[in-house]
Automatic annotation (TrEMBL):
It catalyses: ATP + protein L-histidine = ADP + protein N-phospho-L-histidine. Keywords: ATP-binding, Kinase, Membrane, Nucleotide-binding, Phosphoprotein, Transferase, Transmembrane, Transmembrane helix, Two-component regulatory system. Its EC number is 2.7.13.3. Residues 295-348 form the HAMP domain. This is histidine kinase. The chain crosses the membrane at residues 30-50, 71-97, 270-291. PROSITE patterns: HAMP, HIS_KIN.
């Protein structure tokens, strides 16, 4: 808006100055004001242009996108406007100066003088003719004064071609007149001065000019005679319109020429100033137009830059609606907008697919994390890239970070070597059994290649230790049953035979032989009893009855059982943490058997230990009840935990090796868990049993102690 107002003001001042130059007087008066107005208008336009230029320069200094291109385009447009304007300005100045000089040629002045003389000659001719006619009418009047009437005046007027004819008395009173316009004729009778001049010179004449027309008035003095008093005769004749127009034009031309001649140098200076102002205004206009054109030119580029920046940030920003041009740049912007929209849709689709993949991955990781089966994934170079929690436990890695290097195999290098050997030669799925001798565990390992799209290997490792153990227990149970049947049958006859031999021969043999017989038969009977106990143990293990479960209060069960150990040499402490409830679903007889077995093992482990001590602890943990038996004896031998529950495995000098096997079987029948650990202080051994509570009411935290 300000630019348009400035241009309008500058153009108005230039036009006003140009029009004022046509009037020398007006120009002389208005020139300073016009020059000031022009300077103000040009200064205003220049200020606006400079502000825009400085703004563009700052954008270039700041490195704004598109500013350098806009500056180059503006410079090119200015150069294109500068040189033609300079050439046109020089040529115009040259021709203006020559034209003004040509206006003041001597021939023009002579022509104007000749035209003026010709105009005066035409008037003089009219005056001379009218004077001659006046002389003739004077003589006619003197000769025929007695016979002159009103009709005679009209005849004379028409004959002479006069526009008016008057007869005045010597005192200026109208005696008669003739003319087409009587009112005009009477008004133009002349002035007393003209009458006096005519009286002195016999005639007087005057050319009367008005805005409407011009005419010649001649006054003739008629002296007094005997028959007639003195009088004045007034003749009126209008100047022809063509002569009047020519005279006016010549007069006006001479006046204008005189004014122009008087302001010749000022006129040249004015035209030079007008041209200079026009050129400067044109330059400023060119600069402002160039700035506007360059701004409009780079607008699509700015839109592209903004859209590209948003696209780089992962956002879709529509920019086509900002561009209205239908040229190639507009097409590029619209194409970019369509591409950005497609990319945004593709990105949204990718994000959705990625979210689905992540959800599936999280679901898979959750499933893998809760699997007891170990799952490992290797790449094509046999590098471990993924392992679930069970696999990390198998590999001996307790960290929470994913396994991503073969360093994670430090806990089980033997399995690593076996797997790498299998993957190196296998072309399809492979299944093999692997036994960890150190931990006493048995695993079934399944190795299978991944799909062609994702080359690599997946390894699934199942811990079948419990299955193998169950198979062994079943086998040992069958063996025990058969042994019990095969061994128990001859034991009774053997014992009876030994007792009969001792009874029959004891009195018949000498003392020495009798003692030998006594020792021999006693040994046989003791061994038979031992064999009988072992056979009974085999029988009990092989034919363990099903648990008859009822609601059992473990705290009461423990207290009732510890009564039998009060008189023993080793003190047993019962610690019940909390107030219960301590009820579980179980078989009281089998649970007592478990506790007796564990307490007996603890007492056996405390032989020869100074200050022996056994602690039975009962703890409630939410919906689980934990029962532990702890001693401060010699502890578990190395590798004992892995084989402790196998039948006939024992480290004691006495025993069948069925105690913990029976305990394990009873615990499994009660859906409980058993763990052999070493106490925190590292002394002795601890057996921990965990049962499911018969209810889910949590007891209050607390601690009570009962020593027996």
């Amino acid at each position: 808006m300000r630019v348009a107002v400035g241009f309008a003001a500058a153009i108005f001042v230039i036009l006003l100055a140009a029009s004022a130059s046509l009037e020398t007087v007006l120009f002389a008066q208005a020139f300073p004001y016009l020059l000031g107005l022009a300077a103000i208008a040009v200064a205003a336009l220049l200020t606006i242009a400079l502000r825009q230029g400085v703004h563009l320069w700052r954008q270039v200094r700041m490195g704004r996108f598109g500013s350098r291109l806009r500056a180059k385009l503006t410079g090119i447009l200015l150069m294109m406007a500068l040189f033609p304007t300079l050439v046109l300005y020089g040529v115009t100045v040259f021709f203006v100066v020559r034209a003004i000089d040509a206006w003041f040629d001597v021939r023009v002045e002579r022509a104007l003088d000749a035209a003026g003389q010709l105009a005066r000659h035409a008037i003089d001719t009219q005056v001379a003719r009218l004077l001659a006619e006046a002389q003739w009418l004077q003589s006619e009047w003197v000769a025929n004064a007695h016979s002159i009437q009103g009709a005679t005046l009209e005849q004379w007027r028409q004959k002479m071609g006069l526009d008016g004819l008057l007869i005045l008395t010597g005192k200026g009173v109208v005696q008669g007149f003739a003319g087409e316009d009587p009112q005009w004729v009477q008004q133009e009778a002349g002035t007393p001065a003209e009458w006096q001049l005519a009286k002195l010179q016999e005639t007087s004449h005057r050319v009367v000019e008005t805005e409407e027309s011009s005419w010649v008035r001649v006054v003739v003095w008629i002296p007094q005679t005997i028959e007639q008093e003195s009088a004045f005769m007034v003749l009126l004749r209008r100047v022809p319109t063509s002569i009047r127009t020519a005279i006016d034009e010549v007069t006006e031309a001479r006046s204008e020429y005189a004014q122009i001649t008087h302001g010749r140098e000022a006129l040249q200076r004015l035209y030079l100033v007008i041209l200079s102002v026009a050129v400067v205004t044109a330059w400023i206009a060119a600069a402002m137009i160039a700035l506007q054109i360059s701004r409009r030119f780079i607008t699509p580029l700015l839109a592209l830059e903004e859209g590209t920046r948003a696209l780089a940030e992962g956002r879709y920003l529509p920019v086509a609606d900002r561009i209205s041009s239908q040229d190639e740049l507009g097409w590029v912007v619209r194409s970019f907008d369509r591409m950005s929209e497609q990319l945004a849709k593709a990105q949204a689709e990718q994000a959705r697919a990625h979210a689905e993949v992540e959800a599936a991955r999280a679901y898979l990781e959750t499933v893998l994390a809760h699997l007891t089966t170990a799952v490992l994934v290797f790449d094509e170079t046999h590098h471990l890239v993924l392992a679930n929690a069970a696999a990390k436990a198998l590999l001996g890695d307790e960290s929470t970070t994913p396994l991503n290097a073969n360093d994670a195999w430090r806990g089980n290098p033997a399995l690593r070597d076996r797997l790498q050997a299998v993957m190196a030669v296998a072309s399809g799925p492979v299944t093999f059994e692997w036994v960890d001798e150190d931990k006493g565990k048995t695993f079934v390992v399944h190795v299978a290649p991944l799909t062609e799209a994702t080359s690599g290997w997946v390894v699934v490792i199942d811990d079948v230790t419990d299955v193998v153990l169950a198979q062994r227990l079943a086998a040992w149970g069958e063996i025990a049953r058969r042994l019990a049947h095969e061994i128990k049958n001859p034991l009774t006859p053997i014992r009876l035979a030994a007792e009969r031999l001792r009874y029959k021969l004891a009195e018949k043999l000498p003392e020495k032989e009798r003692q030998l017989l006594e020792r021999a038969t006693t040994t046989v009977i003791d061994q038979v009893e031992a064999m009988t106990e072992m056979v009974n143990a085999f029988r009990d293990y092989a034919k363990m009855p099903n648990a008859k479960k009822t609601r059992v209060d473990l705290a009461e069960l423990i207290r009732s059982l510890l009564v039998f150990y009060e008189e023993g040499g080793i003190p047993v402490e019962c610690v019940v943490e909390g107030e219960g409830p301590w009820a579980i679903e179980g078989d009281p007889r089998q649970l007592r058997q478990v506790l007796h077995n564990l307490l007996q093992n603890a007492q056996d482990a405390l032989e020869g230990i100074a200050d022996p001590r056994i602690v039975v602890r009962l703890v409630r943990q939410n919906d689980r009840i934990e029962l532990s038996v702890q001693d401060n004896g010699i502890g578990f031998p190395e590798g004992y935990q892995q084989k402790a529950f196998e039948p006939y495995y024992t480290t004691k000098r006495k025993g069948t090796g069925l105690g913990l096997a029976v305990v394990k079987k009873i615990v499994d029948d009660h859906h409980a868990a058993i763990v052999l650990t070493t106490p925190v202080d590292g002394k002795g051994a601890e057996v921990r049993l965990t049962f499911a509570a018969a209810d889910r009411e949590e007891g209050d935290d607390g601690k009570s102690s009962d020593r027996r």
